[in-house]
Amino acid sequence: MTEVVITGFGVVSPLGNDLETFWHALCSGANGIAPITRFDASPFRNNTGGEIKAFRPHPADADLPLACQYAARALRDAWADSGLAACSETRNAGIVTATNFGSGDLGREVCESVVRRDATLPPRASCVQMDWLTDYIAGELGMQGPRATISLSCASGVASVGHAIELIRAGRARAVLACGYDELSFYAFSGLSALRAMTPEIIRPFDKNRKGTIFSEGAGAIVLEAVDSARERGARIYAAVPGHAMNNDAYHMTAPDKTGRGIISVMKNALADAGVDPGEVDHINAHGTGTQFNDKTETTAIKEVFGDRARRIPVNSMKSMMGHCMGAAGSLETIGAALTIRHGIIPPTVNLETPDPECDLDYVPGSARRQDVATVLCNSYGFGGTNAALVLRRWDE
Questions:
Q1: Do the Cβ atoms of 285 and 379 come closer than 8 Å?
Q2: Is 325 a catalytic residue?
């Protein structure tokens, strides 16, 4: 089976819009959450979120909807970071984009224009189609390989990486750009508020007093490549991705299955796909949303998969710092996990102040931890019971 490695990253996040800034913020326990300024969030349970700051789109993308600007910037940066932008043989490269809402507010504008029977639709009205961005970037970068657009709720970002892996394993592409993205909009925020998953205060993953999550925006782009292709061109390799898995709970449209059967299965399947024994996992990058049921269920599932060793494995939630970036969450967290392997530093879970007897693992509370990490399991779960997991390993020739 073809081995898949990571050769490029692009980041647009509440913690910074380049790889170095993002990583430094994660390691320092920075807070990416602030009052929302883009729209009036006062009617909602929480008026804060992780908005992108000091963002400058690529000049060619300046007229795109904001969500597409974020994704396009991350995709271009990842492509350049991989070194593939300077290669002539990119025609077989593929692209997979993933999002919860896409350009949601643009969809609202289009609907309002139709209701008013306006003679003209808003500029770039075609961008409301989620697959538009995939086609646009493929054209911009000259990528003629397979392309796909997926929307699997909050598991979208990790699922995009999984799909990219399968395209490479099947020999349909030598390299694939995978990107999860979303923007904070009134449209998205009102829908998420209706699900009653928002906290009225700060986000506290795994804390006894946790009351919900906080939503954010951004984009995370990852270049995955067949190892032979990466070697041939002397590419820098961040990490290997030996395994992944996806499934669904088949339980409820929004509520989690409290038995954790789906997430237990997806973790086991990802490890089996990677050929990794649970005893080899050095760190778990948790979904960790800060909701009562998610954190308790994920903790229970980790114990089921790892047994007595579960309490000795460092587990963290990057959402404690940047909030829940929806379609971008799993992508940005995968990037953070790969950098954890590369630098030997596990970012902390912040705001964890009161231990919960039902969440009794090592969550790396408060501050980052220096530790040699060779293998990481990344978890990502979504509304509707969609589950995805990845295994990352240190790359050694």
A1: yes
A2: no
Instruction: Kindly name the residue from 27, 68, 127, 154 that is annotated as catalytic.
Output: 154
Q: What percent of the chain has pLDDT over 90?
A: 78
Instruction: Dump strand ranges (E) for the chain.
Output: 4-12, 34-35, 48-49, 94-99, 147-150, 175-182, 218-226, 239-248, 283-285, 315-316, 345-346, 369-370, 375-382, 386-393
Q: Which residue in this structure is represented by tokens 């829940």? A: 324
Per-residue pLDDT of 326-372, as tens digits, reads 999 999 999 999 999 999 999 999 999 999 999 999 999 999 999 99
Torsions phi, psi for 248 (to 5 deg): -145, 155
Tokens matching residue 387: 């589950």
- 154 is known as an active-site residue: yes
Closest CA to 96 of 246, 320, 229: 246
What is the per-residue pLDDT across 140-161, written as a single tens digit (0 to 9) for each? Answer: 999 999 999 999 989 999 999 9
DSSP secondary structure of 315-329 = EE-THHHH-B-GGGH
The active-site residue out of 179, 287, 325, 378 is: 287
Out of 127, 324, 359, 378, the active site residue is 324
Residue 57 pLDDT more than 80? yes
Q: In whole angstroms, give the CA distance from residue 324 to residue 28.
A: 18
List phi, psi (to 5°) of 51: -80, 150
Fold of 4-385: Peroxisomal Thiolase; Chain A, domain 1 (3.40.47)
Model pLDDT, residue 35: 97
Q: Quick one: tokens of 320?
A: 């404690």
pLDDT-derived band at 249 (thresholds 50, 70, 90) equals confident
φ and ψ at 28, to 5 degrees?
-90, 0
